[in-house]
Every structure is written in structure tokens, then in C-alpha cells.
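Handoff note, outgoing to incoming analyst
You'll be picking up this chain. Sequence as last confirmed:
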Amino acid sequence: MRVMLVACAIVLSWVGVANARSPVLFSGSWTGTMTQSGEPKGETYPMRLTFKGEGGETSYPAQGCSGVLTPIGTTGDGYAIYAERITKGRVDDGSGINCIDGIVVLKPHQAYVTVGWYALDQGQPVFASASLAQAKD
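Most recent structure output, in case you need it:
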């Protein structure tokens, strides 16, 4: 619990006095491969990120999970911070799929969107990252 509080404080300090409603920094759909650290070999899986208005939707097709992004804020140097709430395949929904809610930090970089994701799983920090390209569909 203490680790989660510290992590939230760090994320919120990045946001500073930013408005809780983030301006739309991204649009369309983006795809790529997430790499999750903390796994024995660094698990990888495909991710799709689709922006809708100020929020967005996440999809992890190989894991059978998807979720919604709600803006938390932005930083002065271009990071956008979102809360991700898993809506399909939640660890506690009885589906047998074990996806968890997290905090998503995004930043455009050249023709890509870089993604940083953080959560706690049974009290242990879990991190994942990706570089997503604009979807061609």
C-alpha cells in the first residue's frame, strides 16, 4: 500500500497543477508490442490504443483484456497521464483473465507514441512500456 501511495504521489507531482481534463494530444489508433518487466523473461504482448475525445480505449488482444483511459492531466513537457480501468478480463471479474488497472503515461516521439504503464499486483510493482505506431487500418 505504501508503494502505491508513493507511486501515485510521484505521478501526481509530474502533473503538478495541470488541469484534470487533459487536452487531446493524440488521435486515432496506435499499435505495437508492450514489454512487461518483472516477469522471468520480460513478457511481451500486442497492444492497441484508440483515442476517443479526451480519453481512450486500450486493448490487449492476446490476453483477452481491454479497458478505458480517463485523463488525469499533463505535464509542461508533453507527457499525458491517464488512469486505465480494465473493463474486460479484470482480475476479479470471474473470467479467469488476470488484467489489472494501472496508470498510463504517454508522450509523442517522432512518428510514435511512447507508453509507460505502472500498477501494483498483490503489492508488487509491475511496469510495462511500448513504442506504438499509427495503425494502418
